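User: Sequence in, structure out. Go.
Assistant: Echoing your sequence, followed by the structure tokens.
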Amino acid sequence: MACQVNRRGRPKCNITNHPDHPNDKFCATCNQRFSESNSWQVIGFLIALLIALIMISVNHVQKSSNSNLLRRETIYIKSN
């Protein structure tokens, strides 16, 4: 059974908690089941991963620039 639609064409679902699955919701009109969205958890994880990758990249660039600086100082000292 399909849900009735409002004047904008969107379904007029009567969404309630699913009696058998506490993390899910369902429409009492059409019996369609909806899973709870964990999108904020996924977004938080992706942001943390992005920050970690940025920190690793900055650390790598810093180390390579420091090693280049040390190499230049060594060459300068040996030439004097």
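User: And one key feature?
Assistant: The chain has a mean pLDDT of 75.
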